[in-house]
Amino acid sequence: MRKEDCFYLGKIVSKYSYKGEVLAKLDTDEPELYENMESVFVLMKGNNLVPFFIDRCRLHKSNLLRIDFEEVKDEAAADRIMRHELYLPLSFLPKLEGNKFYFHEIIGFAVIDSELGNIGHVTGVNDSTSQAILMVDNKGKEILIPLTDEILTQVDRDNNTIHVTTPDGLVDLYLS
């Protein structure tokens, strides 16, 4: 399995028991969707995704998942996977509708402004700030658009477009 074909689920953050159980911090709004997994990919050294089969997993306080792997049955084995990232195939993501979307899903979508028309295409989403920012390429110039409900008006998956209503002067700021 290639990393490009997967999504980041979370990271193993601590040991839970001397029998090799670990706690993983999940990067999701709905951790309960991952409570009954049968397997997961663990990112090992060399950027290799290795499948790990699960005997049992269950939620442990909010967004932590307590995992008992088939291959990990003692503290030493748990230490070997500590702080490693967990991935699942993209096909495991629940379908989103309306204006909800996964960041990877909109890469390449055309961005249509209500006043200016086509202003470029999506190259990514920066979510490392308190406000997610849509990164748009306009003939080699980058435009940054805050992702708010007021600005993002429609995600059109059929036509691979995102419709926005940007504040006056925002786009001109980047193109002048």
Share in β-strands: 35-45%
Domain unit count: 2
Strand tally:
12
| CATH topology call of the largest domain | Elongation Factor Tu (Ef-tu), domain 3
In CATH, the architecture of the largest domain is: Beta Barrel
Overall CATH class of the largest domain: Mainly Beta
CATH superfamily of the largest domain: RimM
Distance between the termini: 44 Å
Using the alpha-carbon principal axes, give the shape: elongated
Question: Helix fraction?
Answer: under 10%
What's the Cα radius of gyration? 20 Å
Helix and strand element order: EEEEEHEEEEEEEH
Mean pLDDT: 92
User: How many DSSP H or I helices?
Assistant: 2
Largest sheet: 6 strands, antiparallel, barrel
Structural class, please? mainly beta
List segments where confidence is low: pLDDT < 50 over at least 5 consecutive residues: none
User: How would you write the strand order of the largest sheet?
Assistant: 1-2-5-4-3-6
GO molecular function, one term: ribosome binding
Protein name: Ribosome maturation factor RimM
Domain RimM N-terminal: 9-89
Subcellular location: Cytoplasm
